[in-house]
Amino acid sequence: MKAPAQKSNPKQRAKAFPKGRQVDINAINDLKKTFNDAPFERDLLIEYLHTINDKFGYLSPQHIQALASLMGLAQIDVYETARFYAHFSVLTDHETPPPPITLRICDGPTCRMTGAKTLLKEALSAFSNQVNVVSAPCVGACDTPPAALLGKNRILNANMDTIGQDIQLGHTAPKTSFPSSVFAPASPKKDAHIIEILDQAGLRGCGGAGFPTAQKWRFFNDAPHPRVLVVNADEGEPGTFKDRYLFENHMDQVLAGICLAAQTLEVQDVYVYLRDEYPHIHQALKKILPTLKIQGVRFHLRRGAGAYVCGEETSLIESLEGKRGLPRNRPPYPAQNGFMGRPTITQNVETLYWIAEIVEHGVNRYIQQQRPRFYSVSGRIRQPGVFRAPSTATVTELIEAADGMIEGHLFTAFLPGGASGGIFPASFADKAMNFGVFEEFGGFVGSGALTILSNHDDVWDVARTLSQFFADESCGQCTPCRVGTQKIIALLNNAKDNEKLIRELATTMGEASICGLGQAAANPVITLFNHGAEKP
Amino acid sequence: MTEAIKFLLNDQIALALPGETIRQCAKRLGHEIPGMCSGVNKHYRVDGSCRLCVVEIEGERTLAASCKRHPTSDMKVWSHSERAEKARAMVLEMLQADLGELAPTPFEPAKRFDRLTTDTPNRLPKTSPSHAPDTSHPAIDVNMNRCILCTNCVRACREVQSNAVIGIAGRGGHAKIVFDQEDHLGQSTCVACGECVQACPTGALLPKGLVPQNAPLKAINSLCPYCGVGCQITYHVADNHVVYADGRDGPANLGRLCVKGRFGFDYAKHADRLTKPLIRLEGADKDPNILNHDPRAQFREATWEEALGRAAAGLELAFEAQGGDALAGFGSAKGSNEEAYLFQKLIRTAFHTNNVDHCTRLCHASSVAALMEGIGSGAVTAPFTDAVKTDAIIVIGSRPSQNHPVASTFIKSAQRDGAKLIVMDPRGQALSRHADIMVQFTPGADVSLLNSILHVIVTEGLVDKKYVAEHVSGYEGFAKHIKAYTPEKMSPLCGIDPETIRTVARTFARADKAMVFWGMGVAQHAHGTDNARCLIALALLTGNIGRSGTGLHPLRGQNNVQGASDAGLIPIVLPDYAKVGDDQARERFEKAWDTPLNAKPGLTVVEIMHAALAREIRAMYIMGENPAMSDPDLNKSRRALATLDHLVVQDIFFTETAAFADVILPASSFYEKTGTFTNSNRQVQLARKVLDMPGDARQDLWIIQEIAKRLGLAWAYENARAVFEEMRTVMPSHHGISHDRLEIEDCVTYPAPNEEQPGKAVLFSDRFPTPTGRGKLVPAIPGPPDEPTDENYPFVLTTGRMLEHWHTGAISRRAKVLDTLEPGPTLSINPQDAKRLKINPNNRATVTSRRGTLSAHVRIDSTTPEGVVFMPFAFKEAAANLLTNPALDPFGKIAEVKYCAVRVERTKR
Question: How far is CA B78 from CA A80, B5, B21, B22, B59, in A?
């Protein structure tokens, strides 16, 4: 872009083109070919951007304009959507396109503990001329850290050798170990008593908010049709990987839960919104979803595009509509006015698993087992992984389940709820990883992501990293979060002297943000102020 | 919900009106809750993102945005509790932390946010980077150091004006306002409507070059002088010049403006303003080609006495020697109703002739002819703001986004909210991307296309049988006539495939409520009346007149063309469309004006030019019209003007027409007078004087009366009010509108039968003002354009306007912002045609028709179809009407300026 003229000029001649950028006919033809001349639908914008970004490795201004033109949209409609999501490489004019394949090095808390920072530095140095090397927030591989994504290939326990090898061999496709036979669950019968059963069971959502499932389903009592069920597979809370695990190991039960929900709620459309960091799951679902035959129900698979905030229900719905993921003010609630204005209910993957479990095996068993959950346990423990345990399980018990602390590491602190649930000292480890336990202390369990820290970890560093995460992921819509997350990072340079001001910021963020991201973004810092043994 | 909602606000019982938000209710009850993302403009969608308006609600964990929340029964709300106030103060501190200084400015809207802030030192560290200001645009300066991301500009651009230029790129602290693909404003698709500037509460977006004034600005409520939308404006004045213009919340514009009204007011202060009367020098002969030389050199200054005397004497001489029909007058569609009324009264009473006309002849004459014939009334049947009430809209032969930008905002909103938009235009346009069906048909093939659509409606049983039975005449004959016009047969003639024709017909006819908008593409043809007949048939067959959300709306171009027509500036009718040949009607005026009147209809604009050449018309009085630029076949028109024995031109600039005058009288611009103006919606609105006249220019009303006096008419209208009050007495449709009423209400729709009730916006719900009370279906037969293309002249030339310029350019070329945005003439040509003709973007092209030739820079434009070229007629350096065809529509007498045959080649150096 040229620098604008500032002085008053002698009269310019009339422009040789209409205002603004002129459509590039080559770009139009590129896209017509790429999309087989098919008609475009507004809500599929993000899918189209993925297709173009996957094919060319970036989004050029010409392609963005051409897509807008073919979709009957203005350039800004496409441009601002593309610029919201981290997974789109939006080029400026004359910018050299990056290498078409992107190598994402995970920067999540557990990956950092296992050398991710160094890995990133070395990868940048060694591989930048071959692939586009970038840092990425938690990719949900905390059981196999450090993690990297080379294109759609998840490299677990990555190191320079394994990465280098995969680059050499061009391994950019998902590695998957799904059975080659296509899964088809038995069509569950519709049963109006299911809501009562779930009510008795006391099932609460497992995505983070913990909303009672039966209560949520009752919102649909008088809802008009068409209705929508959204499966929230965005699993972005750092330290959480249980949904991924359930897809990989219990796909049948997850699908059973989805079908049960779809039928009970009498929806016409099911949208599975899957985070883009799980391309191996995408590959599987792409084959499996079309095989689910339920009368009057259409299944849709949609990719996230690198935005943690899209795990928030209304932000997710905005993303499904092909827009920037901005959470909505409520009321109205999605059950009244959700996707495209239709009544919409959103459920987390794990919640759907439990719905199938409860319906299949009964309420009593579920209650007897103390309302179990799948906990993602990672960090300084020997056997990170997903553990099915009662919701009364304590931190101590989960550490034991994970085979205890790594040799030479003393347990000092933990994150009970990913990045949002606060940082607590080991003295809190006898508490149950359950709803309603950590709230009074300024934290929460949420998605059940337990990250264990040791004496090798500087909790204030962790707090800074998590604060940076929230600043990066804030959608920017509301003042308390957009500005608050930035200011906290600056003030953390001297946390001790700035404690009062940080607390004021945190209060306002908690009180006045539109969504949970802003409301929780200061939790890491505030819980440290309140409970951390050492002041910074 | 129609009942009030009882809740507790700050521990007191409050009653919220149905639909009220907490914030609105609180404000009404005296609790002012601040906010920036909402409340800046009451018509904007409420956003709830700035969080300044948060309140405490019992039982809710977090605070709620009071701008979005509606009270429910027994809700307990505290708007100024400690929790709420603390949050508010912190949010304010957050917004101020990175805010740059607002440089001193007279622009009041930019100060709204600063009024909320305090001087308390900000404790938060600055974390945002500094933004370089963007001053690339001629009208708008961008300074993102003042942006608080309240997103008012985003809603202004995307939802209110629907121009879709402004958006937000990035997230979190990196989120920023951008244009198109983060382009500089001056290189973007921004049309400078300025809605964002008016909406911005911090001065991040400012009108360019505003200088702080020494005294507070005076705010004067008036109107826009440009188009028939009739936007209400507040002008902020200092030192006898307009500093800036604000959109006012008028019924036609709801606070919106376009680039012309908002930024194009400075022409009134241009150095070219006529300030002294001018008289042609002895021996300076009239020369049709004088415009290629120095026309001003043929004139000398004179006193008003001498000039008026000379002006009247010449007219009187012609009258005495050749009789009244040797004289003609062109009144102005840009002048007030009062000026139009007096002008036609003068021509009719002083010269006993009906040779009085104005530029409607060049505009909607064919539409009006068809409407008068079909439904007995030439004006719109419903306002354009009713677009938001429709289920389907046809826009044909009209480019409202450039010529009626604010009216087009309602069409775009309607489409966004679910109405089906069908746009029919041989050229692509701004509405194309909003259109559910875009129909780019062959130029000139309107009747073929429309007949095939009518055919589908009739043969597929889509006719509203009940409506036709009760309100329409001529159905039998029409149905028989339309049988032959199958989509398959018409498709090759109009260039649209049969399936699309059927879809258009079904979409329109099946809609519960539909409106038809049209413009010059329909009217400015030798078969313009036929075109309009088809549109009227569309509405009559489907019962789309007379109900809310339905109607026929020929978008009226000039700010007062409707009023000028209503006031009788037409050769065949007196004020309020009383036919001159209708004895009873004419006698009413003879009585009111105490003078006999001529019963013979007069000549129309183009006929007058031809008559002048034939020496049948010998003298003319032209007020505020520029036929030497706006008439077709300019070489001929200019010859005609040069042939006149005597020409009096009354205008604000030395126009191309003035070059042929004998006497030039310097008049008042729109900003310098008070008067009434009637827009396309039949809304009569009051314009108020904003500026003093320059030099020795005089009020048009005074000049007309001075001439009248010298012609023996004893007129003594003290002011516009006096004239208007007389007009009311002879115009039944304006009975209920008094000048006083306009002073108070600013706007009254006509017909207004009495002073108490509002006028009637939607007409003909029960009957039409025709002899039968029914609407008439009139068959139209397609025919070729008057001058088809051939080997020598293979391109179709179509002419028209552009967003930034107004008609002949007399005023807009002299408005700095407008002329900077579009500084010169261009020929729009399809990229493939350009390539074939070896014309590069920086070349000029020579365009030649059988009547003239000119050269202009090209504009490579893919919305122009192959085989067609387009030129705006605003540029005197390359006056498009030199090329156009004066062939007239037989009924409306309008010329086919939308179609003639030309050849195009690269201009040789």
Answer: 37, 16, 14, 10, 12
Query: How confident is residue A10, by pLDDT bands cut at 50, 70 and 90?
Result: low
Interface test with B, best of A8, A19, A58 (most B CBs within 10 A): A19
Judged by DSSP in three states, A303 sits in strand
Query: What is the tens place of the pLDDT at every residue in B597-623?
Result: 999 999 999 999 999 999 999 999 999
Q: Which residue in B179, B195, B199, B99 sits closest to B134, CA to CA? A: B179
pLDDT at A7: 46
- A124 in contact with chain B, both atoms CB, cutoff 8 A: no
Q: How much is the pLDDT for A3?
A: 40
Per the listing, tokens 């590959």 go with: A283
> Which residue of A472, A511, A513 is in closest CB contact with B172?
A472
Quote the minimal CA–CA distance from A4 to chain B in Å: 5
Using a CB-CB cut-off of 8 Å, the residues of chain B touching A471 are 172-173
**Res A335 pLDDT > 80:** yes
In angstroms, the CA B422 to CA B392 distance is 8
Radius of gyration of chain A (CA): 24
Residue A476 has pLDDT above 80, yes or no: yes
Contact status of A84 with chain B (Cβ, < 8 Å): yes
Q: What local confidence, expressed as pLDDT, does residue A1 receive?
A: 37
Q: Phi/psi at B487 (nearest 5 deg)?
A: -55, -40
DSSP E strand boundaries for B688-765: 747-749
Do A441 and B141 touch, CB atoms closer than 8 A?
no
Q: Would the pLDDT of A491 be above 60? A: yes
Residues A310, A275: Cα–Cα separation, whole Å: 9
* Angle between the N-to-C axes of helices A25-34 and A61-71, in degrees from 0 to 180, rounded to the nearest 10: 70
R_g of chain B, CA atoms, integer Å: 29
Distance between A73 CA and the closest CA of chain B, angstroms: 7
Inter-chain CB proximity B51 and A475 less than 8 Å: no
Res A11: pLDDT? 76
Chain B contact for A15, CB < 8 A?
yes
Coil, helix or strand for B348?
Answer: helix
- A206-220 mean pLDDT: 95
Q: How far is Cα A462 from Cα B4, in angstroms, rounded to an integer? A: 52
Is residue B763 a contact partner of residue B837, using CB atoms and an 8 Å limit? no
Across the interface, do B183 and A21 touch by the CB < 8 Å criterion? yes
Q: Rounded to whole angstroms, how far apart are CA atoms B605 and B881?
A: 15
DSSP letter (8 states) at residue B864: S
CB contact under 8 A, A487 and B124: yes
End-to-end CA separation in angstroms for chain A: 45
Residues of chain B below pLDDT 70? 1
Q: How would you classify the pairing of strands B12-16 and B64-65?
A: unpaired
ipTM: 0.95
Dist. CA B95–CA A508, nearest whole Å:
13
- Half-sphere exposure for B255 (CA within 13 Å, toward CB): 14
SS3 B829: strand
* Angle, vertex CA A84, rays to CA A82 and CA A90, nearest 5: 40
Q: What is the DSSP string of B666-685?
A: E---GGG--EEEE-TTSEEE
A-chain residues near B120 (CB < 8 A): none
Amino acid at B908: K
Element (H, E) at A374: strand A373-379
pLDDT at B90: 97
| pLDDT score of A533 | 60
Q: Do A14 and B823 touch (CB under 8 A)?
A: yes
Cα separation, B636 vs B615, in Å, equals 14
Q: Chain B residues with CB inside 8 Å of A485's CB? A: 172-173
- CB within 8 Å: B86 and A307: no
A519 CA: distance to closest CA in chain B (Å): 9
